[in-house]
Amino acid sequence: QSVLTQPPSVSGAPGQTVTISCNGGSSNIGAGYEVHWYQQLPGRAPTLLIYDSHNLASGIPARFSGSKSATSASLAITGLQADDEAEYFCQSYDRSLDGFYVFGTGTKVTVL
Amino acid sequence: QLHLQESGSGLVRPSETLSLTCAVSGVSLSSSSPSWTAPSWAWIRQPPGKGLEWIGYIYSDGSTYYLPSLRGRVTISADKSKNQFSLKLTSMTAADTAMYYCASLGVSNWFDPWGQGALVTVSS
Question: Please, which of A24, A107, B68, B113 could form a disulfide with A28 given CB 3.0 to 4.6 Å?
């Protein structure tokens, strides 16, 4: 029951910049809850990429950046590299139905 | 360094109960740290080829919080003596087939780290 919507896929050539959107609503991002981003490499568990909208997790290169606006958030990858090819998920909290954690629908990044 | 490892039944028959355990190393579930600073312990699942779904978590004081659509079927508990926490999900159906992950939920509401995952298949 994802209430955070992401584009199914984005692609770019090595060195280019790709941006992934995460669209929520008034009960999650719009209510002021923070957004976090995860990277899931093929066949692996997700790992924390960005927390609190724009802070890089430990060991994450500055090629990754995040931002948040009213009811949405974005993840940008600059200087795209082959090992950035993965699935990316946003995550927040939703205060409806007594509250629950919610993930985005996921975006597959393909490096051309 | 905090590390989590899932274990449990990989094949569950329809209508039966899933039981998974997550062993925690690197931090004690019996930590004397104030409850508002201690992490919570969560379960998340991912059906094959699909997105992530939060199942629930257990707080340091033992209170539990579950995804509304799973309430009544799910129980998360902790065994501090074994430094592990567990998931039970009853009345399993094919729709519950997924990779099940345990994770640490920090006070700032992100999940880090995650276990490697346990694949659970519901089939007769």
Answer: A24
Nearest CB partner across the interface for B67, out of A33, A34, A100: A100
The answer, for B119 touching chain A at a CB cutoff of 8 Å, is no
B65 touching chain A per CB within 8 A: yes
Residues B63-113 pLDDT 10s = 999 999 999 999 999 999 999 999 999 999 999 999 999 999 988 899 999
Terminal CA-CA length for chain B: 40
Largest Cα–Cα separation, chain B? 46
Q: Exposed e or buried b for every residue in B29-53, given b needs 16+ CB within 10 A?
A: beeeeeeeebbbbbbbbbeeeebbb
In angstroms, the CA B83 to CA B78 distance is 8
Does the distance separating the beta carbons of B53 and A1 come in below 8 Å? yes
CA atoms within 13 A on the CB side of B94: 2
